[in-house]
Please model this.
Amino acid sequence: MTVGLEGSGVDPALAVAAVPNTATAYLALTEVAHLKPGEHVLVHAALGGLASAFPGVARTLGAAGVTGTVRRPSLERARASALPYDEVLASDDFAETAGDRRFDVVVDPVGGQVRTDSLRVMAPLGRMLLVGNASGDWQHTAPTNTLWGGNLAILGFAVGFHLPHHPEQGRPAARAALEAIRQGLVPIDVQTLPLSQAAEAHRRIEQGSVGGRIVLTP
Model:
């Protein structure tokens, strides 16, 4: 489940920082959500470590539009980011501000009320990808009659459980990830530190002062 960087034009530090989540997004969108060209995608927690890989991959797969949501305090930063979103909405009222727009694929690493509200903006035959539960709401339930009547699907994806059973998918996913990164669709701020400064790297992470990724180099 490895792929070489030779000829890719991708910096090794950026590859270390971006390939795992980008490959995960590729597998989720192709093997589970079956994203088709021309479809519209909604990504919650748009700046998150995993979520931020989805818009770039969706673009490579032909998505017609990609919308993100974030908490209101992060709205300005998200709209100013280089991530390939068409627009970013506040997560507390995205269902209202979306208006009549409907999404074919919803990427949800949040859960809770965001998950429930997402059902209101899904297109018929829409698919919701569950890739996390940042809300911490482990008791959340979905109204199954809404799924039935709306012709909707909720699909879970955990790459750590998937790849051991399908290792042959690892390399194609990594190659697709490298292509998205090469095209500049997965912009990540990478800080490199020597391995001898691992303690400093942990200190920065614990202080919440890391806006992207830290890569330790030998």
